[in-house]
Design a protein that fits this description.
With 100 residues, the chain is mostly helical. Helix content is 62%, strand content 10%.
Length: 100
């Protein structure tokens, strides 16, 4: 499996927590990354469109029809879990080699 970009990673991570809308994902990403990663609206909606085409996320209905909410699919959850496994392997190798 191909490594995810940071934007894709954080979008999936935010949706792993539960349903969210684009602006909420942008805010949560900034919070989780201590403002190091900032996803702009163009990047956000382009990524969401691509991930919907891949079957990783779906749009879900809300009471407030003005907000588009998104959630992970089963495939999206598997992609996120695979990326976590890959990142853990990287950290383990760093620690094994550097002792840090």
């Amino acid at each position: 499996m191909e490594a995810l970009t940071e934007s894709y990673f954080y979008i999936l991570l935010c949706l792993y927590e539960g349903k969210n809308h684009g602006y909420g994902i942008m805010q949560r990403t900034a919070e989780l990354s201590k403002k190091r990663v900032k996803i702009g609206s163009g990047t956000m909606y382009g990524a969401i469109s691509n991930m919907m085409k891949k079957g990783w996320i779906v749009e879900c209905k809300t009471e407030d029809s003005r907000k588009r909410m998104y959630q992970l699919t089963t495939l999206g959850t598997k992609v996120m879990q695979g990326e976590c496994k890959r990142l853990n392997e990287l950290v383990e190798n760093i620690q094994r080699i550097t002792g840090e």
